[in-house]
UniProtKB/TrEMBL annotation:
Official protein name in the record: alpha-1,2-Mannosidase
Superkingdom assignment: Eukaryota
Entry-linked Gene3D superfamilies: 1.50.10.10
Major location category of this protein: endoplasmic reticulum
Family recorded in the similarity comment: Belongs to the glycosyl hydrolase 47 family.
Localization in the cell: Endoplasmic reticulum
Length: 563
């Protein structure tokens, strides 16, 4: 070959090499045994530190091995991770932990402590119910039904929060004294709409329909308050049913509400919940989603008032898209969010998309699992080795950037400094989803389970007999019509926008910004079942592995914006 310019030969050779390597990536079997062992080892290390230095307190502080209480010293990290022990095959540790709880009569839901109802439900209730089901399946000694008994106690303590004119629960409660007289009348959409999975299961196991009725009634009241455009704000007044925030979005104050419409609709064969999800997704597509893969907040009173902020919690949405049958857009979303991960070595709590900058006081990555969760769903469905590669890359990032003396620590992405914080969801979600990606033979991957928003898993019910066991639990007065729709719809044919056009009401003009949705090409011909849902077979996808190994390095840094 004749070299006409310096470096031409090298560029051509390297280009051909990586194209060949990437083209073969989809046909190669990538070894996951080492990554699986690393995740298992780190889980055991952190769990041992928690049990040795923090138990029975709620949280372990990763930098100095001390503890912190948020729920009255009720062993929240342990409760949140009982079913995680089963996922990791730690049956003996599970049995020992159960005995420790019995010996100390934990958790104690009559202690004098103010708690968040939403968090109490997803962490304690979800953890207790999932662990109860696994103990029963694994014939682990629990003849007294201790875990279910504790779940029922928690349900009884939380019920007073639902005693409101609208049926929408208060956001906080005191375990011992109930709702404080001066408790705020404002609660978030997610807080009020994330009970149906856990409370439906509690109703089934205790044969007491009141829990699911309350959870479903709150969903109905929220739905009845939607605007003429179908928008639901991120915050509502529980007494009047009026929205107390003008912003609608899919971020932290709204996220799991939409997630539970879909998952609870599937779990309990509830067509109305599925119809609500379908209508909500159409509204999200119309008003909130832009440039295919990104989301904005809009005012429920004036849709031209918009806020372009991405947060790590939004990375749950690709998983929801995939579970409802839209795999192609889920791929593009995950690839795009992963690019932001690589920019920062984590997803920030707040990033201004229209200014390409972190938001002050929201610059931290709190070890959240949402992106990894979506990657797990995509890999489970597609078996595309690309998702193994990026999962390994994320694991390497956690080990390199977040590992601390006794655990893993949150990190300020702007100043590149660790914070002495590690929430229980790092074990119960982040490491759990990573492990399931690398452990194809895990019973979860061979079973039929629905994950809660805290990654607690429940077996899909063959039939939820609402007529017999839950008569009149629905309130249909707010429904103008039943929404006939196809849950497994074929994804619309959309082009990838290379430039986004935003309307800026302040200057009354349109501005162009470059947000690219990262696309790959890979043939997809599998037809699998996840969470009991049969997904459509997409024989005409244009995905290949041309860029399957792009950017796979460990060069993390602090960015100034997207390239």
């Amino acid at each position: 070959m004749i070299q006409t310019k310096s470096g031409t030969v090298l560029v051509v050779v390297l280009t051909l090499f990586f194209l060949l390597l990437a083209t073969k990536a989809n046909s190669l079997s990538i070894d996951t045994s080492l990554a699986k062992d690393v995740v298992h080892k780190e889980f055991k290390r952190v769990f041992k530190f928690y049990m040795g230095h923090a138990f029975p307190h709620d949280l372990l502080l990763p930098a100095n091995c001390k503890w912190k209480d948020q729920y009255g010293g009720n062993a929240m990290t342990l409760i949140d991770n009982l079913d995680t022990l089963i996922v990791f095959g730690e049956k003996a540790t599970f049995a020992h932990a159960l005995e420790r709880l019995k010996e100390m009569s934990l958790p104690n839901f009559k202690v004098d402590v103010n708690v968040n109802c939403f968090e109490s439900n997803i962490r304690f209730m979800g953890g207790l119910l999932s662990a109860h089901l696994q103990a029963k399946n694994l014939t682990i000694t629990d003849r007294s039904g201790y875990l279910l008994q504790k779940a029922a106690e928690l349900g009884a303590q939380l019920l007073p929060a639902f005693a409101t004119p609208t049926g929408i629960p208060f956001g906080s409660i005191n375990f011992r004294d109930g709702v404080h007289p001066n408790e705020s009348n404002r609660t978030s959409l997610a807080s009020a709409g994330t009970y149906t999975l856990e409370w439906g299961m509690l109703s089934k196991l205790t044969k007491n329909p009141v829990y699911y009725r309350k959870a479903r009634g709150s969903i109905d009241s929220l739905w009845a308050s939607r605007t003429k455009d179908g928008l639901l704000s991120e915050e509502i007044n529980i007494k009047s049913g009026n929205w107390s925030s003008n912003l609608a979005g899919i971020g932290g104050n709204s996220d799991s509400y939409f997630e539970y419409l879909l998952k609870s609709g599937v779990m309990y064969n509830d067509d109305e919940l599925l119809g609500m999800f379908q209508e909500s997704r159409q509204v999200i597509d119309r008003y909130l989603r832009f440039n295919r893969v990104w989301f904005r907040d809009v005012s429920i009173y004036n849709i031209f008032e918009q806020r372009y902020v991405f947060s790590s919690l939004m990375a749950f949405w690709p998983g929801v898209e995939l579970l409802s049958g839209r795999d192609k857009i889920a791929r593009d979303m995950v690839d795009s969010y992963y690019q932001m991960w690589r920019k920062f070595g984590g997803l920030p709590e707040g990033y201004k998309l229209n200014q390409n900058s972190l938001i002050e006081k929201f610059t931290s990555y709190y070890l959240r699992p949402e992106l990894i969760e979506s990657i797990y769903y995509l890999y489970t469905k597609t078996q595309d080795p690309w998702y193994i590669l990026i999962a390994k890359d994320i694991l390497f990032g956690l080990l390199s950037l977040n590992k601390a003396k006794c655990g893993f620590a949150s990190r300020d992405l702007y100043h590149n400094k660790l914070k002495n914080e590690m929430d229980s969801f790092f074990l119960s979600e982040t490491l759990k989803y990573l492990y399931l990606i690398f452990d194809k033979e895990n019973f979860i991957n061979k079973g039929n389970y629905i994950f809660s928003t805290e990654a607690h898993y429940f077996p899909v019910l063959p039939k939820f007999d609402s007529e017999k066991n839950f008569k009149n639990f629905k309130s249909e007065s707010h429904l103008n019509h039943r929404n006939p729709y196809l849950l497994y719809e074929k994804p619309p044919k959309l082009n990838c926008l290379k430039k986004g056009v935003l309307f800026d009401p302040k200057v009354n003009q349109k501005n162009k910004y470059k947000w690219k949705s990262c696309k790959r090409i890979k043939p997809f011909r599998e037809k699998l079942s996840i969470m009991g849902l049969d997904f459509i077979e997409n024989k005409h996808s244009k995905y290949t592995g041309v860029n399957a190994l792009r950017g796979y390095s460990n060069n993390y840094g602090i960015p100034t914006g997207f390239n």
